[in-house]
Amino acid sequence: MLLAAVTIIAGLAAAPGAAVAQSFRPFDEGPRDKSFAAFRRALVKIVDARNLKALRRHFHKEIRVGFGGQNGRAEAAKAMAGDPARWATLARILRRGGRFERTKWQCRTKTGPRPCILPGFIAPYTYYANPPKGRDAFETMVITARGVNVRADPRRSAKVVARLSHRIVAVPKNPRKNVPKDWVEIELPRGKRGFVVRRFAVSPIDYRAGFVKEGGRWQMTFFLAGD
Length: 227
Prior knowledge:
Elements: E1 22-23, H1 34-48, H2 52-56, E2 59-64, H3 73-82, H4 85-94, E3 99-107, E4 114-123, E5 140-143, E6 148-151, E7 160-164, E8 167-170, E9 183-187, E10 193-197, E11 201-202, E12 208-214, E13 217-224
Parallel strand pairs: 2-13
Antiparallel strand pairs: 1-8, 3-4, 4-12, 5-8, 5-11, 6-7, 9-10, 12-13
Helix pairs in contact: 1-4
């Protein structure tokens, strides 16, 4: 049920020496709908408590957790139970805003399923980042904080060559090899490069979650990563 990303660009003054990249402030439409806001607050508590039984009740019966046919509540529960890191990832997603979507769906009727449009929501906001010119989502990162240090090398003691705040940046097509997993290499102006701590850089096609309101009830329809 993935929908095409909608570009949302918000202006933000660049820090001195920062990369020439698109500004991209965090946003959250969730509070606009009282029913969704209440649903999300309850879901956050469930996820923080790692209550799989309660979480499963909020899964849609056709929830997707992968692109290889992994569908349904049982598969989703199995994925959560077998990967503790997914709980922390889902907790971050729920707190990172998102956007309402008109979602194409197969509504259940007395005569069988029929196409319909239902209220939906996709999180996090980083899913909507528009790749830099000439790049695709696999070559894109979103800086999710203010004043993030860009260092000359992937180590805390390396020289700071720029500071970025809430920006969309490109990753090099030929990245440096053997970069530690907790660092990301990004492009800077005039052919320069730098490194940022990975927790401040999120891919638009990293883990995201989708929700739909069917029969007056919000449910999770997917929780996956990739394209």
